[in-house]
């Protein structure tokens, strides 16, 4: 992924408790988040579903079951690699390759999930701040695309970026067959398992 531009302004305030939420610098409504998720669910092998790990109303991007995928740290839970929040918070949680997570953090677009700081989640799990305008939606979509390629098994994001509206949903798989692995687990990996309970979403 080409170098990220720096996000304008200071970082928003976020919580250091569950649910990990963005407190300020929110857009007036969920239109930008909805547009982002709508584009992403058109990518090959992706479907949108209620999140299995976030607050009620949160919508997730999930790799369709049966398709080959990447390592456990490319997922939040099961085959969910990204979710957009709800209840007035339009930020997202997603996974990124560790080097890109650091780059995006340094550019001001993401921060580690607070449980990363306690060692209970891998450093691939980040919060992507709520996009405030169309330009920030474009950057956010690039990062969600990087999360998608990570979830599909690519060690680095593809250089082509998210497909445009003219792209076919039948495009070729991102990862060559000999580099793929299957990921059909129903339980979260060990670093996530400890914080999953009915009251910890």
Give a quick precis of the structure.
The protein is built from five helices and eight strands, in the order αβββββαβαβαβα. With 201 residues, the chain is of the alpha+beta class.
What does this structure look like?
By secondary structure, the chain is an alpha+beta fold. The protein has a domain at 31-154: Aspartate Aminotransferase, domain 1, CATH 3.90.1150.30. Helices cover 22% and strands 15% of the residues. Helix 1 (31-40) runs parallel beside helix 4 (134-151).
List the helices and strands and how they pair.
Blueprint: H1 31-40, E1 46-50, E2 59-63, E3 68-69, E4 80-84, E5 92-95, H2 98-106, E6 110-112, H3 114-117, E7 125-128, H4 134-151, E8 181-182, H5 190-193
Antiparallel strand pairs: 1-2, 2-4, 3-8, 4-5, 5-7, 6-7
Helix pairs in contact: 1-4
Identify the overall geometry: globular
The averaged pLDDT comes out at 82
Per CATH, what is the topology of the domain at 31-154?
A: Aspartate Aminotransferase, domain 1
Quickly name the level 1 CATH class of the domain at 31-154.
Alpha Beta
Number of strands: 8
Quaternary organization: single chain
CATH architecture call of the domain at 31-154: Alpha-Beta Complex
State the helix count: 5
Question: Strand portion, in percent?
Answer: 5-15%
Structural class label: alpha+beta
Q: What share of residues is helical?
A: 10-25%
């Amino acid at each position: 992924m080409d170098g990220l531009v720096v996000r304008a302004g200071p970082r928003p305030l976020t919580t250091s408790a569950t649910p990990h939420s963005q407190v300020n610098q929110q857009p007036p409504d969920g239109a930008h988040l909805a547009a982002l998720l709508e584009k992403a669910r058109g990518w090959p092998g992706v479907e949108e579903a209620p999140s299995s790990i976030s607050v009620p109303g949160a919508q997730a991007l999930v790799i369709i079951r049966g398709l080959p995928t990447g390592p456990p740290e490319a997922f939040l839970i099961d085959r969910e690699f990204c979710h957009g929040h709800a209840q007035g918070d339009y930020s997202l949680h997603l996974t990124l390759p560790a080097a890109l997570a650091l780059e995006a953090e340094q550019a001001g677009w993401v921060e580690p999930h607070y449980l990363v700081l306690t060692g209970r989640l891998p450093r691939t799990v980040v919060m992507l701040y709520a996009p405030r305008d169309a330009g920030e939606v474009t950057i956010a979509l690039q990062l969600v695309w990087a999360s998608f390629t990570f979830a599909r098994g690519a060690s680095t994001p593809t250089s082509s970026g998210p497909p445009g509206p003219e792209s076919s949903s039948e495009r070729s798989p991102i990862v060559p067959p000999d580099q793929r692995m299957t990921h059909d687990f129903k339980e979260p990996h060990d670093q996530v398992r400890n914080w999953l309970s009915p009251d910890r979403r």
